[in-house]
């Protein structure tokens, strides 16, 4: 089959095969966090006969006045207690004869994640830092820096819960595509959709066909200390937020309803997200939610819950497997945030008032209206558990 012509019109219903795990004798660079997932992945690869080289990203640059967690539990993937992860990885790798490196990617992380995170919030949008971090830092800057340091490897692996497949095209050149994990409760494919197919050629996810329960059971049977370690939490715990945004004072402004009537004052638009109800500081006869954020006027607009329902969205900055964009309308199941259920939708090229195609922009029209579509988040398109592509939400389409 012709991949580009049939992928989207087939709705993902085409033959494919899973990519094989790294073969015995190959060298694998494994991204390690000190947690149970990457630790077990190291053991699986080593038992398969691979030479495993462990690598941990060093992100923290002591520019925020935060103390290390004295309880030995990670607050988040970003924080001063990254030394705990490095210590755990160092001890594990030494015990199991695994070469280990700490890779400094502080500047790449600052530019592509922290600065992006702050700029998006201050523009009235809701960013997802993990979606930027994966292609640009974890699967980008870190393996690139490792090669620059003379570390040679055949594959790059992580403990993510996702799978990789290749369409069975007639020419055998179909691009690598991301498939949801066997354990849908832990699936992380949404976070990975922006990683280029060209890089995925030599990426593998050893845990993709396992459940989290199985991972813990196997890790405990091996006596791995990581099996008893608490998992890290969100990217930005509450105590981090004020410090990350401390480089500029927030600019207070008006809180208004959809008709522009003044309801109160906000403390800075970076503290608000679409759909938010708590912490608004507004008294009303019915529950109110953030409907939109007007960065130009520095206003937060509130509405009732029903007004949060939207008929669709416009997305741009899109990525497609093999960089082959769809050329016609197609159906897909769309996730508008990690926690949302995929909703059947129609995806089509966006056109201007004259009927001309707007390059790089697509409309996603939901079969059922969805709540709180947030600009800055990602719309990821699935079919039969395969990612067909995705993009950044630029605005909602009202019913």
Low-pLDDT windows of residues: none
The mean pLDDT is: 91
* Relative helix content: 10-25%
**Biggest β-sheet: count, sense, barrel?**
6 strands, antiparallel, barrel
Determine the N-to-C terminus distance. Answer: 38 Å
3D shape: globular
Order of helices and strands: HEEHEHEHHEEEHHEHHEEEEEEEEEE
- Give the class from helix and strand content and strand pairing: alpha/beta
- Strand order within the widest beta sheet: 13-16-15-14-17-18
Helix count, per DSSP? 9
What's the number of extended β-strand segments? 18
Strand content: 25-35%
How would you characterize the overall build of this protein?
The chain has 399 residues and is α/β, with parallel strands linked by helices. It has a 6-stranded antiparallel β-barrel. The radius of gyration is 22 Å and the shape is globular.
């Amino acid at each position: 089959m012709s991949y580009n012509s049939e992928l989207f019109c087939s709705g993902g219903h085409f033959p494919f095969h899973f990519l094989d795990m790294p073969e015995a004798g190959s060298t694998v660079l494994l991204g390690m966090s000190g947690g149970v997932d990457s630790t077990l992945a190291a053991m699986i690869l080593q038992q398969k006969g691979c030479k495993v080289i462990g690598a941990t990203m060093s992100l923290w640059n002591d520019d925020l006045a935060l103390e290390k967690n004295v309880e030995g539990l990670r607050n988040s993937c970003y924080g001063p207690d990254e030394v705990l992860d490095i210590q755990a990885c160092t001890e594990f790798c030494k015990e199991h004869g695994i070469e280990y490196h700490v890779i400094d990617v502080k500047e790449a992380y600052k530019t592509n994640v922290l600065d992006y995170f702050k700029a998006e919030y201050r523009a009235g949008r809701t960013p997802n830092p993990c979606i930027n971090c994966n292609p640009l830092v974890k699967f980008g800057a870190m393996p690139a820096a490792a090669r620059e340091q003379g570390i040679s490897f055949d594959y790059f692996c992580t403990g993510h819960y996702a799978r990789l497949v290749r369409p069975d095209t007639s020419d055998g050149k179909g691009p690598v595509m991301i498939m949801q994990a066997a354990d849908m409760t832990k699936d992380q494919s949404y976070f990975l959709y922006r990683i280029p197919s060209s890089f995925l050629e030599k990426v593998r996810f050893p845990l993709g066909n396992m459940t989290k329960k199985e991972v813990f059971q196997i890790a405990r049977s091996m006596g791995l200390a990581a099996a008893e370690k608490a998992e890290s939490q969100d990217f930005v715990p509450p105590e981090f937020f004020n410090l990350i945004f401390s480089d500029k004072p927030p600019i207070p402004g008006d809180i208004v309803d959809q008709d522009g009537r003044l309801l109160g004052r906000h403390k800075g638009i970076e503290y608000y997200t679409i759909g938010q109800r708590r912490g608004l500081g507004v008294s009303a006869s019915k529950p109110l939610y953030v409907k939109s954020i007007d960065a130009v006027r520095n206003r937060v607009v509130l509405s009732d819950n029903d007004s949060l329902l939207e008929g669709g969205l416009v997305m741009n900055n899109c990525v497609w497997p093999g960089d082959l964009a769809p050329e016609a309308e197609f159906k897909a199941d769309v996730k508008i945030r990690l926690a949302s259920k995929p909703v059947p939708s129609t995806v089509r090229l966006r056109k201007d008032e004259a009927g001309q195609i707007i390059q790089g922009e697509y409309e996603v029209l939901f079969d059922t209206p969805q709540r709180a579509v947030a600009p800055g988040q990602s719309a990821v398109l699935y079919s039969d558990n395969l990612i067909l592509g995705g993009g950044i939400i630029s605005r909602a389409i009202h019913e």
